Amino acid sequence: MSASITQAEWRAWDQTYNIKPKSFAQLGIEGHWLLDGIDREGYQVVIRQVPAVPRFILLHGFARSYRRQAAARWQPKVPARRAGAS
Predict the structure, then answer these.
(1) I need a surface site. Which of 2, 21, 28, 86 has the fewest CB within 10 A?
(2) Is 47 exposed, middle or buried (0-12, 13-18, 19+ CB in 10 A)?
(3) d(CA 74, CA 15)
(4) Read out DSSP for 21-53?
C-alpha cells in the first residue's frame, strides 16, 4: 500500500471516508471499540491520531457509555425484554 499512495493521501482519504461523515458520538464509541483489549503500544498509536482536547473528551466522555453498551452486548445473563414491557 505504501508504494501506491503517500502518507498525506492516506490521511486525506481517511478523513474523507472514516472521520468527517461520522458524528462526534459515533467516533467516541468507535474509538473505545478500537482501544478495547489493545496492548499499550497499540493504544498509543490509536490515541495519537486524535488532537489533545477531543481525545480527552472522547476518552473520558464516552467511556461509561461504551462500557455499558459492551456489557449489554457481551454479558450472557442480560435478560431480554419485549419492547414496551415494564
Answers:
(1) 86
(2) middle
(3) 30
(4) TS-HHHHHHHHHHHHTT--HHHHHHHHTTS-HH
Question: Tens of pLDDT along the chain (86 residues)?
Answer: 557 899 999 999 999 999 999 999 999 999 999 999 999 999 999 999 999 999 999 999 999 999 999 888 888 765 656 656 55
Q: Tell me, yes or no, whether 68 lies in a domain.
A: yes
Q: Are 58 and 27 in contact (CB under 8 A)?
A: yes
DSSP 2: T
In a domain, 86, yes or no: no
> pTM for this structure?
0.69
